[in-house]
Amino acid sequence: MARKNFSSYLTWSDDDEKRQLVCTDVGMVEVAPGSPYPPSTERHPSAYKSVATGRVVNEYQLVYVTRGRGFFRSGDTEYKVTEGSVLAVFPGVSHAYRPDPATGWDEYWVGFKGTYADSLRTAGFHVPERPFFPVGAHQSIISIFSDIFSAVAAQEPYYQFRAGALVMLLLSEVIGRERKAEQSGESATLVERAKFLMQENVAGAISMETIGERLGIGMERFYEAFKAYTGMTPYQYFIQLKINKAKDLLDAEEASVKAVAFTLGFDDPYYFSRLFKKKTGVAPSDWGR
Description:
The chain is of the alpha+beta class. The chain has 10 helices and 9 strands.
C-alpha cells in the first residue's frame, strides 16, 4: 500500500508521449475535519493550489474520495461528493472541489494527458458532460491507484509506460462500474438472458427480432438496454461471438473456410471471410499459420 499524504509531479520524455498517455502527477491525502484545504500548499505548483475556489489545468485528472463528503463543481454544474465518488477533471474546463469542514475527506488522485485520453473524449467515452462517477467504495480501484503510486515511486526504466497502462485500466474500471451502476436489475437480467440466447445459437442464424420476442420486449427497448450495458449493439455482440467461435473451429478442425462459414450460419462464405479479416486482421484461410 502506498504511503499516506504525499504528492508527486512527474516528468516525461518525447518517447513517453509517443505511447499516447503519460502520467503527470499523483498523490493521496487524508484531510481531517476542520483542516485547511488543500493541505501543504507548498508542495503543489501554483496552477494547482486554487482547487478549493476554482482553477483550470491543462491535463485530465481522476480524484477518488474514499471517506467523507464535500463539493465538486465542473463547468456550471455542482455535485455533492460522498464516499466512493470519482471526480473527473478535464483540460481547459473550470472546476473546483473541497471537503466539507465537518467531515474532511480522504482522496487519491492521478493526472494524465496524451492522445489516447483525447481520443476517448472525442469518441464520447470520457467527456466533460459526465465528470462525476458515484461508483461506490471498491478495493479494486484503490489497488490500481496503489499500483500507479508504486510505479511512480520506483521510477524504474519505462515506469511511465507502466503508469500510463495503469491509468488506462483505472479509466476502464471507473467508466465500467458507472455504466453497470446505471443499469437496473431488470435490465441486467434482460441482457444476460439475451447473451445466453446468442451463445446457445452461435452456430445458427437467429435474428435479433427473434431474441427480442423471446425476451418479451420491443426492439427499441432491447437495443437501448443491451447497448447501455455492453457498449455494443446486440448484433455487434452476436457477430463477435461468431468470430470467436470461428477461431475455435479453425484451430481445432481441418475444416474449410466454407464449411466453417456455413456452420456459423453465414450463407455467403466470401462475406464471412471479409468479416473475419475485418475483425481479426487475418483472413480465415491464414488463421493459425
